[in-house]
Amino acid sequence: MSNLEFDGIVRRYIGMLYRIAFNYLKNKEDSEDCLQNVFIRLYNYKNDFVSEEHLKAWLIRVTINESKRILSNNIKHATVDIEKVANELYVDEIEKRDFSIELMKLNPTYSTVLYLYYYEGYKVKEIAKYLSKTSVAINLILSRARKQLKDFLQEDYNE
Questions:
Q1: Residue 116 CA: distances (Å) to CA of 27, 43, 147
Q2: Other beta carbons less than 10 A from residue 66's beta carbon
């Protein structure tokens, strides 16, 4: 892969991958470290990708795995302020800021699937392929995530 091709890939996917990492890691610094590691792995990757979809699936999977690795090595995530995280992610979008607070409370698998489905516009089959799960599993995760998100939003509304 040439430097020009690599640069194009980084430009195309950095935003999406950053948000996926942020869903797991809940802070800017670790998310940036995660992406740096993902792109180093891409740069050193010796095989060719079959298609753009194969590349995208590989990047998503590596980002999730790297996020989990960083989480397992860091204990400090237990003390992250959810409000601060939401404000960092969506500084100028008030409606999304409120929603992102609740999204951050979800299990990372739930928030990642919701993010890919609603923010990136992927279909269930595509998400299943990227996350190496079945479409049935993704539908179940979406259903559970929506219910949990609804419960969080109702709790906040009732307070």
A1: 19, 24, 17
A2: 21
- What DSSP character marks residue 77? G
Whole-structure pTM over 0.90, yes or no? no
Judge: domain 1-80, CATH 1.10.1740.10.
yes
Domain 81-159 sits in CATH 3.30.300.30: no
Q: Which residue has the tokens 């948000």?
A: 19
| pLDDT beyond 80 at 39 | yes
Helical spans, DSSP H, in the chain: 3-25, 28-44, 52-73, 82-89, 94-105, 108-114, 124-131, 135-158
pLDDT at 82: 52
CA dihedral 74, 79, 81, 85 (to 10 degrees): 0
Predicted local distance difference test score (pLDDT) of residue 84: 54
List of residues 6+ apart from 89 with CB closer than 8 A: 19, 22, 97, 100
